[in-house]
Amino acid sequence: MHAPVLLHEAVDALAIKPDGIYVDGTFGRGGHSRLILSRLGEKGRLISLDRDPDAILSGEKIADERLCIRHSSFSGMSGVLQEKGIAKIDGLLLDLGVSSPQLEQISRGFSFRVAGPLDMRMDTSSGQTAAEWLNFVAENQLEKVIREYGEERYARQIARAIIVARTRQPIVTTLQLAEIVATVVRSRQRQREIMQHPATRTFQAIRIYLNQELEELSLVLPQCVELLNPEGRLVVISFHSLEDRIVKRFMRAEASADDFPRGVPLKEKELQKISQQRLRLIGKAIRPGKNEVIENVRARSAVMRVAERIALSE
């Protein structure tokens, strides 16, 4: 059962207008989308996207004329909206990372706790599997991926262990990879009582690299600002520091007023016209409460940030 993280907080942050147009860039199993629909009026519209074919199948079961669901990465959002004849939207939600069904479905290969094929693709209809990549990647590239995307201090040792192991036999299952990493990295104590599996960061790194997750995020954020109506909201839920860093820096940059010299002989409205500031930060970063983390351990690393499109003065 998939429990959406920060469900009510995220949808509340969108400040839903009953007749507005909204985008759920990561449908998952539809928790956020369903709540958005419940707050829309008859004329409201919701466009939900996902790279995962299973998520699309789940979404197509929702019988609601206000919902349009498309198989697409969120970086393809502008194209999807253009096809629908939509130029502007009133809000956008991005719930990043891996969903519970993806982790729990053995055939997807995201989990290091059960034996399954080493796949790790968000979109199982295209792209290279983790097994295919691992058995041919150069050692220096493998080390770089594990270090940069996993923030793993033992990246060099892990990469060497993987290269050595694959000379004996191809690495094709999740447990094979997890056991190789465990020979190099000890379990880490995290947040007091939580013990982090030795392979956590390596699996994260390979998944992020294969799915180009950070590149996708960097591509979609500028689109969001261009597409949002004045007072439209951008809500992003991140699950690791690499994602959150990109979101935080982008929002802060877009919310920074231009540094005009003192004494510029222009009125406030005139300054606003030539300013490059396009977003206003809404509140501080929000994290799940203690009860949500107890009920859904996946929520423990979530961070939600919200920004609003500034209305330009005429």
Architecture blueprint of SSEs:
Blueprint: H1 7-13, E1 21-24, H2 31-39, E2 45-50, H3 53-59, E3 67-71, H4 77-83, E4 89-95, H5 100-104, H6 130-134, H7 139-150, H8 155-168, H9 174-182, E5 188-190, E6 194-196, H10 200-211, H11 213-227, E7 228-238, H12 241-254, H13 268-274, E8 279-281, H14 290-295, E9 303-309
Parallel strand pairs: 1-2, 1-4, 2-3, 4-7
Antiparallel strand pairs: 5-6, 7-9, 8-9
Helix pairs in contact: 1-2, 7-8, 7-10, 11-12
Structure report:
The chain is built from 14 helices and nine strands. It has 314 residues and is α/β, with parallel strands linked by helices. The strands form two sheets. It has a seven-stranded mixed beta sheet with strand order 3-2-1-4-7-9-8, with helices on both faces. The protein is globular, with a radius of gyration of 21 Å.
Strand order of the largest sheet: 3-2-1-4-7-9-8
Structure summary, number of beta strands:
9
The topology string of helices and strands comes to HEHEHEHEHHHHHEEHHEHHEHE
Proportion of beta-strand residues: 15-25%
Report the C-alpha radius of gyration, rounded.
21 Å
Query: Mind describing the biggest β-sheet?
Result: 7 strands, mixed
Structural class by helix and strand composition:
alpha/beta
Termini, distance in Å? 49 Å
Low-confidence stretches: 189-193
Helix content, binned percent: 40-55%
Mean pLDDT value: 90
